[in-house]
Amino acid sequence: MPPATSALSVRAWRDHDTEARALPGMSLGRVRLDPEPGAAARLWDMGVRRAELDAPVDLTRPGPAAARAAIDRLCLVRDLTARAVRVDWDLRLPADRSEETWKVLSHLQPPSSVTGPADPDTALRAWRTRHYLCKLVWRQGPGFLQIRDRRWGDLRRFTADDPRYPAALARLDRGAPRADVPDDIVDELAAEHLVLAADDLVWWLPYRVTRWLQEAMAV
Questions:
Q1: 211 contacts: CB under 8 Å, gap ≥ 6
Q2: Total domains present in the chain
């Protein structure tokens, strides 16, 4: 049985600008959330345009509960990134996998700090300067799924027409035990760095974009 999700919270503001959020009426205080698919939409509907996570995303801690907590927060960062909401968060990575992992996560809003890489300042600067919306997105068409990946500097496009994929992605979207998803699908996605593993959980990285920066056809 997968570890249960636990409530998390964010400090929230109506504007992303540092000076503007200090004005009267801009703070929405601390908002408690249940980790679920509608959490980002709920914040957006409240008027949240900047959010600060209550705890770091810590991928260094062992055990299923720690993995669940990290992925719950990554889900929120991913889904808020899709809405172009500014997210203040901190990331802790295992030193032995940090260089690969931060690049795998580089489609998300850049964190405020990252620990794990040998040169964290350089890693964070690269993340911030190269980040833009729609770096890793997916869409579902009639009978297929398509993923567009620009994390590595070029456009990599993947199309899956296996009828098992929609159900597999529905499970992976919030992080699922590896045993709950067919091995060949997990292996295919892992080979293209489209999922992240934490303890026994496997999590789907791409987001379905909510706000386009330019015409959808150009993305």
A1: 82, 83, 84, 133
A2: 2
